[in-house]
Amino acid sequence: MPHTLDADAVRSWCALALDALGRAREEIDAINVYPVADADTGTNLYLTVESAAQAVAAAFDGHAAAPGTALRPSLSEAVRAMAHGALIGARGNSGTILAQLLRGMADVLAEGEGAPDGDGGYRDHQGDEGDGRRGDGADGLRRALRRAVELAYRGVAHPVEGTVLTVARAAADAAERAEGDPAAVARAAYEGARVALEATPAQLGALARAGVVDAGGYGLVVFLGALAQAVSGRAPAAGPVAARGGCPAAGPARTDGALADGASGDGPEGGPAFEVIYLLEAEETAVARLRERLDALGDSLVVVGGDGLWNVHVHVDDAGAAVEAGIEAGRPYRVRITHFGTAAARRAHADQPHPHPRADDTGRRTDAPGAPESPAGRADRAPRAVVAVVPGEGLAALCAEAGATVVTARPGEPPAAGELAQAVRRARAPEVVLLPNDADLRHTAAAAAAQARAEGVRVAVIPTRSPVQGLAALAVHEPGRSFDEDVVAMTSAAGATRYAELAVAERQAWTMAGVCQAGDMLGLIDGDVAVIGDGLAGTAQTVLDRMLAAGGELVTLVLGADVPGDVAELLERHVREGHFAVDTVVYRGGQPGVPLIIGIE
């Protein structure tokens, strides 16, 4: 692929980073010991990048839908969308710093872009010096990484070495020394960050005592690895390691002494009790005064953004005073306040069985200090719930009838982690089983579960890859048995269900079954193309025969939108006449884009 950084590369960077952080999320959470050992850095970084990716996707969708515009956004629009999405969705200390790093990169990459070339792309002009430097080329990437570090250090009230800031600076240093195209610069930045990450325990006592590298720095290395892959087409050969000595962290890191000696407050290790985060609309002069006031109230102060919109993050003992300071400065919104001690207890408690919310004789929830719950509210709360993601109205109605809380996936718009977490809250149960029903949602579901666990909900994600696996799991769900037994039974039922779907090929492509042409009917079995056919019914018959050759007792057919009922009758007859003692059930799922989903149990 071309070694360049353009809007398509930015979109690819977002997708690759989100996938990589999804895979690394639990390990990053486990080594999170500084500045507070609250085991959420990986989740926060994932949610921050998810917000950035959604903003970039919206920029592409906007261009595709608007007549008379370029087919895709410019590099400037893409990187600014990425930075803005990260800013408004930033979570935690590391997520807020990452948002500022992206803002710094956007400032440089956007200013160096040339004029439209008439084909949805953009020509590059020379830099201010007239020496042929390209704003979105290798030199532009070097300067973008340097600008990112400068802004990040400014955003942190009291920078500490051995953290994500150190790793970011090392990446910028390595990029400046690198020669070659943008891919070479991105690879150098990644390698520089990876080497710096390994040295963080020697720079920060909390990391040395726990025997781990910095969690935020680890996440940044993963993020830069995605950038290198996006512009070069090749994933980095060596990945970061979580523990000193090159040994992966086997579990949550030791957190004794994780904060500086002499810290005060009711939080972990004597630190401040609350984390306060909010978006703020304010003038820069007011934000300067806000920094001074918040710095006097607590620590871990990070204020990032600009142009009238800021993201404020601080650890304090007086959460109300931190919010009031924001009100005096401008208009704060999306205010999130987390009590560190409560959050830590909830995370620990979420891994233990508890069939009902704990309450004292007055009806006050003892696992949620300060949050009384009415008798009616407790009566409405089920002991266990199921949240299911489904692609069609018919499937949504079917799952809702079975008692599940439903999230409907729209074509081309997979639900975000926040949407799934909100569905868990709507379920109003202390125990929740989450069925993503899509292989591409596995990381999103895991991040949503992490959010819910931090709020005291016990959540299990069953890795269902298709709606028919979700239906099989839901069929054996039994709230009356223990949580672990229920999860095992549902997981077993889902795993015993093979799945297939039929879809129309959009373009010519090589597949596991050979070359397909645009308009061909594809039969995908367990996610891989196994059959290429002409029509829906004939291709479905071939798929059924292949799957039933390995055995099966029940066939489930889920019809998509606008599929005539006689197709189901034809397939039912085919199964009845060709396969002995196999039953068939048919549902009208109404899913768009996928005319037929098949399950074999």
Short descriptors:
601 residues, alpha+beta, six-stranded mixed beta sheet, four-stranded antiparallel beta sheet, 20 helices, 47% helix, globular
Task: Record the SSE blueprint.
Elements: H1 7-30, H2 41-65, H3 75-89, H4 92-111, E1 113-116, E2 122-124, H5 138-155, H6 164-177, H7 182-199, H8 205-210, H9 215-232, E3 274-281, H10 284-297, E4 298-306, E5 309-316, H11 319-329, E6 331-339, H12 340-350, H13 375-380, E7 384-390, H14 393-401, E8 405-408, H15 417-427, E9 431-435, H16 442-454, E10 458-461, H17 467-475, H18 483-495, E11 498-504, E12 509-511, E13 514-516, E14 521-525, E15 528-533, H19 536-548, E16 554-559, H20 565-578, E17 583-588, E18 596-600
Parallel strand pairs: 7-8, 7-9, 9-10, 16-17
Antiparallel strand pairs: 1-2, 3-5, 3-6, 4-5, 11-14, 11-18, 12-13, 14-15, 16-18
What does this structure look like?
The protein is α+β, with helices and mostly antiparallel strands and 601 residues long. The protein contains 20 helices and 18 strands. It has a 6-stranded mixed beta sheet with strand order 15-14-11-18-16-17, sandwiched between helices. Strand 4 and strand 5 (309-316) form a beta hairpin.
